[in-house]
Design a protein that fits this description.
about 300 residues, two-stranded antiparallel ribbon, single chain, alpha/beta, 7-stranded mixed β-sheet, globular
Length: about 300
């Protein structure tokens, strides 16, 4: 048995969708299905009830899901302990962060942290949202920093993971200004001439938030996707070049807005074309046999005191 089979199975148990999990695990759906079948062959029983939709686990699958979580955590805890033997390992904080937050929120947050908390040594692990969350679940980081919205919450067991809110982030549409200083691509557009849209790749968290904004708009929005990437920074650069409009985190475009290199693509009378998300930090609840490293525990206590536990 390979550990990636267990990771695949955990993803399937959480998404209840072969296609969605295949996207998140960056494999084709046939390859993902073969890996689940290989795990079932190893287990000697069906783990997934394929007669239902959405996908449902069998009783054996439910049992394996609970055990898989513990096995993966144990493996990652062992790896963390081995790494701790390296020089200074106990002082370096390993922080998993989705790519967009790594470019926007994280640098500013670390600067404020050093002013208020003191010097820290950290190792940034930039991943997509799903893999960053899995890194925490598997015990491969001290801290996970991620976006949160009630419509798209991270499915982390509150009995196993603690959370604090670090701040808020606004996602809204921006584009290059025209010669008069207004938006070159003014929402909502119209059906005969949809606006060029710079979108996120399939499965990207910010893309799903942007889709919610568009779907819930009281005024029909007319967009034509002309470019996509998982990276907000990539969309920002394309917007700066005038290729279309993009939904971007405010922290990513703050300097561009001040310099008038980008402007809001939504006129004031068009309400609801933005959404506020929380930025949260998560950590695994320390166990008696697996206490947090000293630096991580001190930082968490500081965050709880300054933001309040959840």
């Amino acid at each position: 048995m390979e550990t990636k089979w267990l990771e695949d199975f955990v993803s399937l148990a959480e998404t209840r969708s072969f296609s969605r999990s295949a996207q998140l695990r960056h494999v084709t759906q046939p390859a993902f299905s073969r890996r689940i079948q290989a795990l079932e062959a190893w287990a000697g029983t069906d783990l997934v009830d394929r007669s239902s939709y959405p996908t449902r686990l069998t009783p054996a699958g439910e049992t394996l899901y609970a055990q898989a979580m513990e096995m993966l955590q144990a493996l990652q805890s062992t790896r963390a302990m081995l790494r701790g033997h390296s020089s200074g390992g106990q002082d370096v904080l390993e922080i998993a962060v989705p790519h967009t937050l790594a470019f926007t929120f994280f640098p500013q947050w670390v600067s404020r942290l050093r002013e208020q908390f003191g010097p820290i040594r950290s190792r940034l692990i930039a991943l997509n949202v799903h893999d960053a969350a899995m890194r925490l679940v598997e015990g491969g980081c001290d801290l996970l920093i991620a976006y949160h919205h009630a419509a798209l919450p991270l499915q982390l067991d509150p009995e196993r993971y603690q959370m604090v809110t670090l701040g808020q982030e606004l996602l809204a549409p921006y584009c290059k200004p025209d010669a008069d200083g207004g938006p070159a691509f003014r929402l909502p557009g119209w059906s005969a001439h949809p606006l060029p849209y710079l979108g996120y790749g399939a499965g990207a968290y910010l893309g799903r938030i942007a889709d919610l904004i568009v779907r819930h708009s009281r005024t029909p929005i007319h967009l034509e996707r002309v470019y996509e990437t998982d990276m907000a920074e990539g969309l920002r650069v394309m917007a700066l070049e005038g290729h279309g409009l993009a939904f971007l985190p405010h922290s990513a475009v703050e300097k561009d807005l001040r310099a008038h290199r980008l402007v809001s693509a939504a006129p004031p009378e068009l309400e609801g074309l933005q959404m506020t998300m929380e930025v949260r930090a998560y950590r695994a609840v320390p166990g008696p046999k697996e206490p947090s490293k000293g630096a991580a525990q001190a930082l968490w206590e500081f965050l709880v005191q300054t933001t309040g536990p959840r």
